[in-house]
């Protein structure tokens, strides 16, 4: 990518982790442009909505129906509302280790940025911890008969411990609680049929987004028919105002999704993500070893497709100041890496350029660690956590 002044960067941000094939991908953009030239939005669904839904369901055979939206928050909050309607219960169980599950009150009210969320709403979300089976069992022991839904990512950079997902599924079944797998990030990245396919645990509802349309605004909630039908008109129960977005059915995004899915089917995108991510993990490890800072700089993951970069201060604990310094030095060498998002189009040239930049940045980081401070090295302010009470 290029700045307005013409500076060139290898991009590892790839949007917000949602462009997993590559920027300006011709097959996908051509499909989107052709669709919008025939009309972008109509008062009723176009055939493209059905075609995109069918293409999506072919990838996720455990699911029966699809409702499209524009972002992951829409899909996850629709699942929460649907589960409350189905079960007649109020409480939402959420993974307290998850970095982000929705912009809506049921999740944001649990964070440090809860301003504007009524206190009563905050108490309707109850936490458990990923990979902590006792915390899940304690949650169900205390709240099982009041829970409407359990919301969690199948995995992040850490794999589920044996029996964790199975135990969550078992407790949901025993207590009549719906299980939502948030695969906004993991779908199209970990496995073509979703991360849950690797662990053979079936959710009741599943949200997908990010890479579904290679950067076009689209997400979806998928689910079992017995639950999804409550959001429609083919039932005699109380109606659920399920999900409505003015631009939800815009044809360009639906066409992009169809083309993206077709690209995934004809190219080993997932394999490339694992390979390119593993390359970055090894490049960071080599640079850290070369400069004697293996205890202070690393990129690691149980899944090569999703490396997590960690930079520590002189005391060995994660440090935003030292992380900011490392990223600053990468930028100075033509690499933009706010996080590590491998794409299909990261090729030999981009990998080599990034590897060299990592070595240069690690050298500066090592000097700052030896100095005991980023003072004199960091040009601006350190990055701050997203979830903080004050600016």
Query: In the CATH classification, which architecture of the largest domain applies?
Result: 3-Layer(aba) Sandwich
Strand content: 5-15%
Strand order within the widest sheet?
Answer: 2-8-7-6-5-3-4
The CATH superfamily of the largest domain is Type I PLP-dependent aspartate aminotransferase-like (Major domain)
Q: Domains counted in the coordinates: how many?
A: 2
Q: What's the number of helices?
A: 14
Order of helices and strands: EHHHEHEHHEHEHEHEEHHHEEHEH
- How much is the average pLDDT? 97
Low-confidence stretches: none
Total beta strand runs: 11
CATH class of the largest domain: Alpha Beta
Derived structural class: alpha/beta
Q: How far is the first residue's CA from the last residue's CA?
A: 30 Å
Features:
single chain; 391 residues; alpha/beta; Aspartate Aminotransferase, domain 2; 2 domains; seven-stranded mixed β-sheet; two-stranded parallel sheet; 14 helices; 41% helix; 12% strand
Structure in words:
The chain is an alpha/beta fold. The chain has two domains: 26-266, Type I PLP-dependent aspartate aminotransferase-like (Major domain) (Aspartate Aminotransferase, domain 2), CATH 3.40.640; 268-371. The protein is 41% helix and 12% strand. It contains 14 helices and eleven strands. The protein has helices at residues 14-17, 26-37, 47-59, 72-87, 105-108, 119-122, 133-143, 164-175, 196-199, 225-228, 251-266, 269-290, 320-332, 348-371; strands at residues 10-11, 65-69, 91-95, 125-128, 147-153, 178-183, 205-208, 219-223, 297-300, 308-311, 335-336. The strands form three sheets. It has a seven-stranded mixed sheet, sandwiched between helices. A two-stranded parallel ribbon has the order 1-11. It has a two-stranded antiparallel sheet with strand order 9-10. Strand 5 (147-153), helix 8 and strand 6 form a beta-alpha-beta unit. The longest helix is centred in the last third of the chain and has 24 residues, at 348-371. It is globular. The mean pLDDT is 97.
């Amino acid at each position: 990518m290029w700045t307005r002044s013409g500076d060139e960067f290898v991009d590892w941000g790839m949007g917000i982790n949602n462009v997993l094939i590559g920027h300006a991908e011709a097959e996908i953009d051509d499909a989107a442009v052709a669709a919008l030239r025939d009309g972008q939005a109509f008062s009723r669904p176009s055939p493209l909505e059905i075609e995109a839904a069918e293409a999506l369901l072919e990838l996720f055979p455990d699911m029966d129906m699809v409702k499209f939206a524009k972002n992951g928050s829409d899909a996850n909050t629709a699942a929460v509302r649907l589960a409350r309607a189905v079960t007649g219960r109020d409480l939402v169980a959420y993974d307290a280790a998850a970095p982000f599950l929705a912009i809506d009150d049921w999740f944001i009210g649990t964070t440090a940025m809860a301003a504007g969320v009524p206190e009563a709403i905050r108490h309707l979300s109850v936490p458990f911890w990923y990979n902590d089976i006792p915390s899940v069992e304690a949650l169900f022991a205390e709240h099982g008969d009041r829970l409407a839904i359990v919301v969690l990512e199948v995995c992040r950079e850490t794999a589920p411990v044996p029996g964790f997902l199975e135990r969550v599924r078992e407790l949901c079944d025993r207590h009549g609680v719906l299980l939502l797998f948030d695969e906004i990030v993991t779908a199209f990245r970990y496995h073509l049929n979703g991360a849950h396919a690797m662990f053979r645990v079936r959710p009741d509802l599943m949200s997908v987004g990010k890479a579904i349309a290679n950067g076009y605004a689209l997400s979806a909630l998928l689910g079992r028919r017995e639950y999804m039908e409550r959001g429609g008109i083919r039932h005699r129960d109380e109606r659920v105002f399920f999900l409505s977005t003015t631009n939800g059915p815009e044809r360009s995004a639906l066409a992009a999704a169809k083309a993206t899915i077709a690209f995934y089917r004809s190219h080993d995108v997932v394999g490339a993500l694992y390979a390119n991510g593993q390359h970055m993990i090894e490049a960071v490890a080599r640079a850290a070893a070369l400069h004697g800072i293996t205890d202070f700089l690393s990129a690691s993951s149980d899944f090569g497709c999703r490396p997590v970069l960690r930079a520590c201060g002189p005391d060995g604990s994660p440090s935003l100041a030292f992380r900011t310094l490392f990223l600053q030095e990468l930028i100075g060498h033509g690499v933009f890496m706010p996080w590590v998002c491998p794409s299909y189009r990261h090729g030999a040239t981009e990998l080599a350029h990034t590897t060299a930049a990592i070595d240069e940045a690690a050298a500066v980081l090592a000097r700052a660690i030896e100095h005991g401070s980023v003072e004199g090295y960091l040009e601006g302010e350190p990055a701050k956590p997203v979830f903080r009470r004050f600016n």
